[in-house]
Amino acid sequence: MKIRLLFLIFCLSLFASNVFSQSNSSNQKWWKEAVVYQIYPRSFKDSDGDGVGDLKGIISKLDYIKSLGVDVVWLNPIYSSPNDDNGYDISDYRNIMKEFGTMEDFDALLKGMHERGIKFVMDVVVNHSSDEHEWFKQSRSSRTNPYRNYYHWWPAEKGEPPYRFSQFDVHRNAWKYDSLTNAYYLHYFSIKQPDLNWENPQVRKEVFDMMNFWAKKGVDGFRLDAFQFACKDTTWPVFPKEDYPKDFIKYHAMVEPIHSYLKEMYDNVFSKYDVMSVAEGAGRNFQDAHDLVDADRNELNLAYAFDPIDARWSKDYSMLQMKKIFSKWDSVFENKGWLSIFLANHDNARLVSRFGNDDPQYREVSSKMLTTFLLTMRGTPFYYNGDELGMTNIRFNKIEDYKDIAALNGYKYAQSINGDTGNYITFLKENGRDNGRTPYQWNANVNAGFSNGNPWLSVNRNYKTINVEAEEKNANSCLNYFRKAIQLRKQNNVLVYGKYELIDKDNSKVYAYTRELNDKKLLIVLNFTKENTSFATTLDISHSKILLSNYSNASKNKELKPYEAVVYELH
Ligand code: TEU
Is 206 tagged catalytic? Predict the structure, then answer.
């Protein structure tokens, strides 16, 4: 009897542990454990001397990319494009941009990544196409063309359409009059980026077919550009004009039935492959974000929320606010959904210039501190190319140096409203998107080794000291620190799945938190200032082990040097 009981207990415990590990492992996903490296192809490496980066250039650097330790590469759009917005205006979704190469180059690139165990995420831009896409050419040609309904048109005989905000339009107006058919078309971005009409089932079918085309080629994921804006309320209600651009998201994002379209996308594309999916922007609030990515809804995998970087625009920005925002997002996603962690991308200024300190005295140490942050938070890190070198803002003084449509049209808009272009240039120097798009700095040779030709955007003058070749030689470089931080994450699952808890919450200089999983607990402390400072905790760090630090002599006395970052393993 006793033996039987023992046997029963044994069987039950086996069953329980099996169920537990199953439910546990079902929450574990490769895309949660991955570090995503974002490459801006136009600026990464030019192989043919036309001054524009290309796919062959990336292929020539695959071993370098592998050496970083990253798992996934996300490339900004590489499809055929007239480049009004650097590839975010697509004229053929099934072809490669001429400057970037050919479909054979693409196939070779994908193969080269897969051979090295690197996954590939495709940028899908389907809120809008280029006005040079065949669909739009047809659509604009006559009111009765079968493609007319692929886009949003407002017949001019109805008067002016209700105002809609456009981010890149010189007049900030998203309706553009087209005399050919005496009608306005909608463009939330530039006039060369007409918005697709997602209400039209034919448009959705075209998009899903196109995504399947790439999925069948073997891509491992999709990033949905500006997708929160894809649906429009086509009863065209009047929105208060004075609320822009502040309330752009509030009025333009997450219009229903966006979720049913995402479910269709899931059924038609994502469900058929082992791919990751991430939408740019996470809606208007936490509920929207959950509705996009909760696993049981079968829409997307990862939320990519702008709050943490958008807060930086405000004059009242502070570290306390940053801590609050990240902590809130983490708590809301603690049990459901999954986040992307990032502080920079191709739409923003350089990581170290914006969140650290690019003064030569502090550049390296603050860049490493930010790398520590990005690689120790809960969520999938999306790390932007060049940040691992500590590349900085270029801060162009003259509008002639800028190439970004947002900057060029923003300048014209400033001229048209008050003529205060000086202020606008000051703004661009710190925040302009071209800051993050200058050519990648490979070495101290001409054009930083990026191109033998004339680079499409100026190379930052500091390339002689900030470049891969120099940093490879230096064991303490930003580059080698990035590699170490990635390895730390790889070796410590606690950094992926562990619970996050904010420590010393009201400290306005130090961002400190623990990550805890099973019996492992790490404490991460980050001094976000150039001053010596300290932090408070009741945790015993005297017996801890220091796993990573951006100074050679990190201490356990709760004192921190400028921009010091330390990861302690608590015992
Ligand atoms: O960005 C969409 C988006 O909402 C951006 O407007 C972002 O807030 C802005 O660029 C900040 O200046 C995506 C792409 O990331 C961006 O590069 C494209 O220009 C845009 O879509 C249009 O496709």
Answer: no
